[in-house]
Each structure stands twice: as C-alpha cells, then as structure tokens.
Amino acid sequence: MAHPAQLGLQNAASPIMEELIAFHDHALMIIFLISSLVLYTISLMLTTKLTHTSTMNAQEIEMIWTILPAIILVMIALPSLRILYMTDEFNKPYLTLKAIGHQWYWSYEYSDYEDLAFDSYIVPTYFLEPGEFRLLEVDNRTTLPMEADIRMLISSQDVLHSWAVPSLGIKADAIPGRLNQAMVASMRPGLFYGQCSEICGSNHSFMPIVLEFIYFQDFEVWASYLYIV
Hints:
The strands form 2 sheets. A 5-stranded mixed sheet has the order 3-2-1-5-8, with no helix packed on it. Strands 4-10-9-6-7 form a 5-stranded mixed sheet. The chain is an alpha+beta fold. It is 34% helix and 25% strand. Helix 1 runs antiparallel to helix 3.
C-alpha cells in the first residue's frame, strides 16, 4: 500500500500492474527526453542571436520534425495497446467474484459457491486495533486464492462507484444496471487495500476495499468453514 511522501506507484502484486509500471517508466523516459530537447532549444534561442538561412527554410528539418513525433507516438501506442488487450483476457478463471457498490459499502458474492455472500463496511476509527489503518480497514475482508485468475463482475445498486485496488492494477466503474468485467490476480499472499474512486456522495471516502490473498488450500478451508457457520 502507499506510504507517506511516496512519489512513485505502489509495488506491483499482479502481472498486469508490473506491465503498467514498466509502461509508465517507458512513457516517462520519452517525455523526459522530449522535455530536455525542448528546453535546450529554448535556451539556445534565448542566449544566441545567430541565425542561418538554410535552417529557416529547409525541407529536411521539416520532414524530421513531422516524422519523428509520429515515430514517438507509435513507440508509445504499441505497448499501450498490448497492455490494453492483456487486461481484457479471460482464460478459464478459477473463481468468479461479484462486487456490488452501495451507499456506502460494498457487498460481495462468490458465484461459484452457494449462498456465500457478505457485506463489507468500514471499521470506525474508535474500533481500530493497534496497527490497523484508518479509513482503510473493513469488518469483512474479501478472501481470495493467490496465483489464480479471478473474474470480477462489478456493478452498483444506487449511484456510480468505482472499484479500485492500485497494487493489483485494477480500476473498474460500478454502474447501476450494468456489469463490468475485470481480471484480478496476485502473485503473493497478503493484504491489498483500495477505495472507491468515483465521487458517489457524502460518504464517498468511507468505502474501503480490502483483499486478502491466501494459499489455495487455506482458501478452501476458509470457504468450507463459512458453509458450516
């Protein structure tokens, strides 16, 4: 999760987020090079009065500053499209989880299990245990198996919401009357925090998301325990 004074992105916990971070660094380097070139050109124009007639009317330089930006755009567009198609790939998901946004909490349904559903509310500040995070903890964490493709079906019952977990590289709008689909996967166990990322009302800031990824065998034990209870 994020920490104070953090300037970069959160550490990646999924393959998609690793690709997004790599693309971010790739695009940022291109922007840095362009900005340096523009700054250098401006500084030359401000510090020298020399001109040359061949540079004021030359077809070669005009071709260069027309073709070069097109090449740069292609260098940015191709990796971007690759990641875009990767986020839409759904190859035999192990589990389907439905997240429904409400004012102002989330409810979850495990579609592959009968009657396995619960609501997830924020934990008030005065109920927090030592070491827990204010405005990020919930009473019922969403437990999922690690190293498995999980299909998310995201919708809303009242207003627009947005289900977002930055470290997993997922952000999908929850729209009333519509199901949005996304893929979630984590390569390591742990807790991953997110929040509603759409202004949805007065308590928009109080809709945290907590995903707990555990090992396969532990997930089956957890699911069977809920059946018994």
